[in-house]
């Protein structure tokens, strides 16, 4: 398919004013919202939709991606979502947009199945971690070589988690007590 593109046999779709307006409405976006998404001014969107200005090819490509991915593009933009590599579809369909959409769906489903680290990692997360590890506050304090009052303050939110303590707790969340060095 890429060879077809290079040979000029296929090209990106061209969007005209009514196409932009229809896409924007299908995605429930205002002109201002689409402008923010494409990093243009709202006046530019207005000029495109009123056909007072032609779209540049790079914006046609961006609109095509929005058109094919739909609202899934916002999930891809979410900085809290894990990033995955694209995988080939099991069978070859010679349809790049369908393969891309399938890969996005697969990766989003995999992300939902994988237990993630809570964000923000706050007092509730520390209490949940302690329960998952089957430890009392004193037991967690002993494992981490901190005072029981420190664990109390973490769980109550009196002390903000940061630095090495936060890193260690996140590692424990993912790997459990096996991540800690053995005690002597």
From TrEMBL:
State the Pfam families in the record: HTH_3, HTH_31
Query: Keywords in UniProt for this one?
Result: DNA-binding, Transcription, Transcription regulation
SMART domains for the chain: HTH_XRE (SM00530)
| Database matches in CDD domains | HTH_XRE
Q: Name one GO molecular function term.
A: DNA binding
The residue ranges crossing the membrane are none
Q: Which residues form the HTH cro/C1-type domain?
A: 20-50, 126-157
Q: Which organism is it from?
A: Sutterella seckii
The record's InterPro entries line, in alphabetical order, gives: Cro/C1-type_HTH, HTH-type_reg/antitoxin, Lambda_DNA-bd_dom_sf
Which Gene3D superfamilies does this chain map to?
A: lambda repressor-like DNA-binding domains (1.10.260.40)
> Mind telling me what this protein is named?
Helix-turn-helix domain-containing protein
């Amino acid at each position: 398919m890429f060879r077809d593109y290079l040979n000029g046999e296929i090209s990106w779709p061209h969007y005209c004013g009514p196409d932009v307006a229809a896409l924007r409405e299908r995605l429930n976006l205002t002109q201002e919202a689409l402008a923010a998404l494409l990093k243009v001014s709202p006046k530019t969107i207005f000029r495109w939709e009123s056909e007072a200005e032609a779209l540049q090819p790079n914006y046609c490509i961006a609109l095509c991606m929005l058109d094919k991915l739909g609202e899934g593009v916002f999930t891809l933009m979410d900085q809290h979502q894990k990033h995955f590599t694209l995988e080939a579809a099991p069978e070859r369909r010679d349809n790049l947009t369908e393969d891309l959409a399938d890969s996005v769906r697969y990766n989003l489903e995999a992300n939902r199945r994988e237990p993630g680290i809570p964000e923000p990692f706050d007092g509730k997360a520390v209490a949940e971690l302690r329960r998952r590890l089957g430890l009392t506050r004193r037991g967690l304090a002993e494992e981490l070589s901190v005072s029981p009052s420190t664990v109390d303050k973490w769980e109550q939110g009196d002390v903000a988690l940061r630095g090495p303590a936060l890193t260690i707790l996140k590692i424990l969340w993912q790997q459990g007590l096996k991540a800690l060095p053995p005690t002597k």
